[in-house]
Amino acid sequence: MAAIWTDEGKLDRWLAVEIAVVDAWAEAGRLPVADAEKVRKARYNIADVARYQAETHHDVTAFLKSVADSLGDEGRWVHLGLTSQDVWDTATALQLRDSATLLEDDLHALREVLEARALEFKDTLCIGRTHGVHAEPTTFGLKLAGWVSEIRRAQGRLAEAKAQIAYGKISGAVGSHATVPPDVEEKVCINLGLSVEPISTQVVPRDRHAYFISTLAIIAAGLERMAQEIRHLQRTEVLEAEEPFAEGQTGSSAMPHKRNPELCERVCGLARVLRGYALTSFENIALWHERDISHSSTERITLPDSCGLLDYMLDVFTGIMRGLNVYPENMRRNLELTQGLVFSQRVMLALIDTGLSRQDAYAIVQRNSMRAWKERVPLRGLLEADPDATARLGSAKLDEIFDYSVYTRHVDDSFRRIGLT
């Protein structure tokens, strides 16, 4: 990823655009084919570009001067009819497209790890939490299957964003094609593997870039959600899952016992940075008339950084999930922490099935549940001592109600929905 966004990575793509334009002009009969063949051998010198830029204070003219140094008279055809942004935006589309390809590979790698771990813990019972409070049992595999589904959505979003950003423009100073005809633009973009921006100004419209960066930010937010879940599960009083901790690693300079979820915290923090870049990309959409330069300074930071950050986050989180420590025994301990309160809804539904109103059934279960919670005694024992409950629910029925297997009976169905078996 870093190589795409180096100065050489950028200038290589600038040169590819310039050569493609010369080839298109030659095909259109505007210049000699022999000259176009010579231009294909054009080169630039990175040190000279920097030196020329110190003089010109313009990166594209400095680049063109260095390219001209490598050519003879045929150099006059380079940049024919173009404005700087023709080269910049079209080359940037190549950088973003190539970056998206790497991110697609990253997502595929993460998805494979998540799918394997979801299957590994498909039937591992754990408590489900809402508002941070124990709710009803689920399985750890089902939790991870939800992450698999989200990553698949991320893959779809990224594919669409990649298609949306892979647009070039070779339409001249204000997009009117006054100095470069549409057929030249079309040939250039086709040869570079890009789509043609239907109507451009001096720039490719920045809603494309905002769509792309916001897509990366959404993917990062999904990683943050997953990493935050691991952070919660790693808390000492929970300890159901824990990010990898290498031999010799330290968690605190002061407390040798510490095993902190610092990798997950890193993912969460970087997601905030990416959201900030998304906001900046929205601000870049509204440019003055056919173009101003307010977007340029920000994009030199936001575009490479956004791609690099998500690439890094995906790599880190894939490593976390590959080495995630999972503690089923602690999941079971936490599951039973509330003395059977997790079965409260099943008790209420069973009472309703006997003909009791929902309000009366709710009242019976709630008063026994609150007592079980305060006194730390099993809910089932309290129900067996409550005449209102025992009049309708016998011992056999309570055995059926207080059975964890009911919470796993449709897990296979859920996994089949996403093609995991």
Notes on the protein architecture:
With 421 residues, this protein is mainly alpha-helical. The protein folds into three domains: 2-80, Fumarase/aspartase (N-terminal domain) (Fumarase C, Chain B, domain 1); 85-334, Up-down Bundle (Fumarase C, Chain A, domain 2); 341-401, Ribonucleotide Reductase Protein R1, domain 1, CATH 1.10.40.30. Helices cover 62% and strands 5% of the residues. The protein is built from 17 helices and six strands. The chain has helices at residues 7-27, 33-39, 46-56, 59-69, 84-120, 140-165, 182-192, 207-233, 262-283, 294-322, 328-335, 344-353, 358-375, 379-384, 387-390, 395-401, 411-417, and strands spanning 125-130, 133-139, 167-168, 195-196, 241-242, 325-326. The chain has a two-stranded antiparallel ribbon. A two-stranded parallel sheet has the order 3-4. A two-stranded antiparallel ribbon has the order 5-6. A hairpin with a 2-residue loop joins β1 and β2. α5 packs parallel to α10. The protein is elongated, with a radius of gyration of 30 Å. It starts with 6 loop residues before the first helix and ends with a helix.
